[in-house]
Design a protein that fits this description.
Strand content: 5-15%
Number of strands: 4
Strand order of the largest sheet: 1-3
Number of helices: 5
Order of helices and strands: HHHEHEEHE
Length: 243
Amino acid sequence: QTYLLIYRIPYSELGAWQRSNALRPMSALLIALFVLSIMSMLLTLSITRPLNRLRHAVHDLAHTSYHQEQLSQLAQRRDEFGVLASDFNTMGQRLQGLISNQRQLLRDVSHELRSPLARLQIALALAERGTEEQRRKLWPRLQRECERLDALIDEILTLARLDQVQTKQQSFAITPLLTKLIDDAALLQPNQIIAITGIKNLTYQGWPELLQRAIDNLLRNALRFNPAGLPIEVHITRQDNQL
């Protein structure tokens, strides 16, 4: 047997039911859009904030005021931004070191060039006022000072090309080196007495040009600030393997 069951719904109730069911997909769509917007905003902030930090770090590095602590927190991240921040810190530290070395090199160059230039000026002034015999005695000194200037400029150009120039150490006598420096100082201050005291006839393993330049700076400062009438003493002592 076949039965046909018919349930009649009034049009008002049917319309209300259709309207209520039609709002459900729209509500779900709006909720999905809201959630996606929040997630997109969070994802955007997670990308733009590290990029802004990197941009500020680049700006500071361009103005030579970069500090490694600016990206220390970002460098601790485990993602690609952390690796990038760590590499950027290494690069910034390297660049700051190069800038500092360049400034220090310029200061050292200006300081080192003063001594041979001053001796050249004094020797030239003496040669202009001296006799022919005195001029012949001054020519070797002038030539030696010019050779020192040429060697110093060559070393400066080498240091400008390389970060560090390593040369082999050599053994040399201390007393002849000091005697040579005292003779050069006598040209600047003929009336100043400079004496070598302590152990003599010693040899040293190192770089004679660098040691000569360091002691020459000390002697030049001593000649400038030493009271008149008092001698300058260069005292040599041995302490273990050092002088």
